[in-house]
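Sample intake sheet
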Amino acid sequence: MQVKLGTEFNPFIDIEKLKEYLLISMPKVEWWLLKYYNSYKRIRTAKAEELRFSKNPLNSLPLLSGVQNNNGKFISLYQALDALTELYKYETYFKEEINVFNKLKKDKLTIDSWIKRNEKLGSDTFVCFLVDYLDYDEDEKVKHLNIFIPHSNGKEINISIDRAYFQNTITFLETFNSYYWT
């Protein structure tokens, strides 16, 4: 079932407009999520109802995974950007933790305590962040963050986020990884 949302609903045009800036800022991502929040909820509710009353719920699963139609593509895009904003909420915390680390980095015991305090974030929540989101140039330097949304028709949406918005996350993870995984 394709949910009809009217002519005002075109999140892909808005994303394409944002991509004209080459790198999208996190405030623009948050704006896009707010703009399409109600549409996201309507589509998710409609799909949940369809699954609930379907004789064969497996027929609707590709739609929820975002590979079949525009609703699915939209849901995948929305969820990917929403997940990124959830990670972005840690920027202030990581900035504080980098400052703490820089003050105590000469003392092995305090470094161990710092690692233990941040273990869940560094080894679980953000363990794949550097691999999943960062785009590197030829010199292995981070250029920016990338969000890839695959589609069944072979086309994908590729969104580049300005890495400056995640600088504390990147620095924190590089520091954490150099001590935790060695």
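Comment: Residues 43 and 49 are 10 Å apart (CA to CA). The first strand starts at residue 134 and ends at 136.
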